[in-house]
Amino acid sequence: MGSYVEIIENLTLILGENRIKTDLESLKIWGCDRTRHFDPKPQAILFPQTTEQVQQIVRLANQLKFAITPSGGRTGLSAGAVAANGEFVISLDKMNQVISFFPADRMVRVQAGMITEDLQNYALQQNLFFPVDLAASGSSQIGGNISTNAGGIKVIRYGMTRNWVLGLTVVTGNGDILRLNKGMVKNATGYAMQHLFIGGEGTLGLITEADIRLDRVPKNLQVLVFGVPEFAAIMPILSKFQAEIDLTAFEFFDQRVMEIVMAHSQLQPPLAAPCPYYVLIEFEAPYEIILEKAMQIFESCMEQGFVLDGVISQSIEQAKNLWRLREDISESCAPYLPYKVDVSVLISYIDDFIKDVEKVLKQHHPEFKICWFGHIGDGNLHLNILKPQNLDKDEFYAQCKHAMRYVFDIVEKYDGAISAEHGIGMTKKAYLGYSRSDEEIVYMKRIKSIFDHNLLINPGKIFD
């Protein structure tokens, strides 16, 4: 490995002095994501402005043998962007512009550091819609979303980030620039390599540009919140609505979550009395008949005992406040230092899966207080374990890691995924075998070595 002084001197020739940060505060800020399991220890933070500068940095890394950690909006929850072992961080913060807009294709080419919310607003200015919507849309970046194949609250209608990526420009770990798929909907010319980088957590190289597909703007969105007597009633509600209406969102959360959100965000209770579980439903109602159909389904669910009470938004402002009950969950739970787990199983298994998880946690860790919420309409569940006051952080995380063996045993039992949308990073790599076979992991490592001969790009993520 080249000396630190030699590396910095060469990086300065590429970027200039003003695009390199080495002060302790910057190292701490850009060296981590939202996980707190690992202490950031980067060597320096680099801010390239072009794909070519990224390429020069990566080629220098291969020459002088130093490791690189890509960094986007730093909103990840699996330590996929944490530089814990002396890596040099490449931040995409300065690569945040729209490059080209293709109206006939409903496509926009953007730099990977563009903030999700900025892309959403740009799409609306073109009378179009970018549907990937996350709690962290105001700070997450497109490149990071693509690298984790982010999901969010609209997956039931629009699918994952992968569905909206038509092409990528990447710098591989070997320092080559590849333009993958070039924005085409149809391209039957061999391997679709862009899909290796979508969800690849920056382990194969760095995404620098993305061709993003846009959609029409949804019309007259309606939001319903139902109080539900038991978890077993949630899936029948989903089935009834999906049989008649194309939903844009179907979310759930429990009463403990509701109490935490209302206390933190000072929102008013949506219903007259507390309920064990809540369901939030969103759908388009451009025609009155769709709204009438929704009310008929609601009444049917009430008659069958699936719903105890409900409310429908009467204005845009009320719709936003109902959505805040779901969108404010992560921020509201943060003071409890929750251990966050996102998993997915087939919708058919969700009821049994939750029962099994609650049973095993009660048996082995009765002191844990758990919160359930998630994008249940696509099989994605978020389990948050709140830190007991009598445990310090390290002991709490140690107990949670012990508990995860039991939880992931159940994930494996139902052929599920130990990560639905947050990625593996470092927090879950020890558990990868619960969702991936030994043979799959061998192939994944071989793919990594092809794109990154010297294993210098985001080392230690997904697997060792």
UniProtKB/TrEMBL annotation:
It comes from the Bacteria. Its cofactor is FAD. The keyword Coiled coil does not apply. Residues 38-217 form the FAD-binding PCMH-type domain. GO terms for biological process: respiratory electron transport chain. One of its GO terms (molecular function) is FAD binding. Keywords: FAD, Flavoprotein, Oxidoreductase. Belongs to the FAD-binding oxidoreductase/transferase type 4 family. PANTHER family: D-2-HYDROXYGLUTARATE DEHYDROGENASE, MITOCHONDRIAL. This is FAD-binding oxidoreductase. It comes from Acinetobacter guerrae.
